[in-house]
Amino acid sequence: MKDNDQKRFEGTMAAVDDAILTATATEIAEHLRPLEIEPRAAATAMRSRIEAAVRDRGKKLMKAAAEQARREPSLKVISGGLQQAGDLRAKLARLLSRPGIPTTLAARDGRSMSDADVESLIQDLAELGITEEKKP
Amino acid sequence: MAVREIASEDEVRAQLLALDEDALRRLELGAAKYRKMLPRQDVEELVNETLRRALEGCRNWPKDVPFMAFLFQSMRSIAWEFLEKNKREVLDSQIGANNNDEESDSYLEGQPAEIDDPHDTARLALFADEVERMFGNDDDVMAVIIGRVEGLSAAETQERFELTSAAFEAAQKRLRRGVLAGGLDGWR
Hints:
The complex is a heterodimer. Chain A is an all-alpha fold.
């Protein structure tokens, strides 16, 4: 019985909804006015509600992420800049560990060098033809 | 049977934010029609709940369904849930049950019982009766309604009830005017 009532209600409302979706813009405006809804204000109000709903969703996601980070201390904050510097040092270490690299260079493992020095040394090695693309 | 592609949360959000003024007005009108059967506050929450569920993925948007049709469909089923929720709470309050459910973000789950007007609980179902009474002598409008109740497409309804496209569109227009333009005002 309940299922039949629901089917009947939703079907009836669906027929009305279809009629709203196929109406012209002028007809929509004509239907809004008797309901004391000014068409332009209706669009503005609905847009505000959508934007508020999107903001709420964003806040919930941020809250959930913060909660997860609090519950799981093993999660580390990852900084894009640090990761890039780390990647460069790893790249330098890989280049310097190749056979045939002069010992004076190989001794410079990059750990005590600044980020700029690491980048500069990788460029120097590239000029010597030592890159990850091409073996020396 | 083909697997339906479900939109991601990002796609739903982008689609909502991309709705133009015309679509926003239709959405407002789609919600406003429930004023005829629900208290104003419930109508406001009906829209919020529809947006929330779409954004949170509680209701999936199959991408082969037009986005506006998906939103309207969600609104219909949430409106029905309002009715069911109110019915249950009236029953609980009548037997003295304490209905302090656990905390929830859902508006529906946080609503108090509306026991002052038991007729409220049946408004949605009665509304369908009123629409049928109003158009009982209009075979074309009844065909449009019956087609939808039975899950037929517009083309299938036209074929089953031998309606031309023009007759079908005219019937939709009469239904819309009857429901929205005052024909059912004060039916309660």
